[in-house]
Predict the 3D structure of the following.
Amino acid sequence: MDGPVAVGKSSVGLLLAKKLGYIFFDTGAMYRAFTWKSIKAGVLPENEVDLCRLAENSEIHFIPGKEGCLSILVDGRNIMDELFSPQVEKAVPAVAKVAEVRRIMVNKQREIAQRGKIIMAGRDIGTVVLPEADLKIFLTASAEERAKRRYQELLERGESLSLDAVLADLIRRDELDIHRSVSPLKPADDAIIIDTGALSLQEVVDKIYALVLNL
């Protein structure tokens, strides 16, 4: 399941995984986890040599977590509660576009997929990570609708940003994801595209659930 930032992949994926008895894994959390480590290590995204060396030497493990999710341990430490800090939020697009970092992370994502019974979400799952998947979903919604959702999430976390600032950052993220040279954000040729803008969360879940049953 792919789609841009704040389109609802995690919300949909969690409910769908619970309904199917599957595990949900958001690959964006993996890039955030590594970005967190790079910040702690003082390695800047533009220093690609050191960044790739850090990625090669990072121990990233996955364990069953809350509500059917996989939790990420970086060098033995569970850092799930630190993935959405402003520092990580700002740096993750630059880290995630580095080709060698993506190669390392994609290999780890494919290892997870081999466990089976998993819903994997990200930007390039259908096009790069699991191109042979039986069902590929691409979620979409307008930037304005997604900004409203992200704004509400930030308010619930106690963060204070204006809606205009959230929208501007979301558009910036979209541009980086769509136009990066490695694994750009786009639907796979055989992906089913679902516009979540006019649908409730449950309606999106039910629509995908029906597609799974028809496989």
About this structure: The radius of gyration is 17 Å. The CA atoms of residues 27 and 142 lie 22 Å apart. The mean pLDDT is 91.
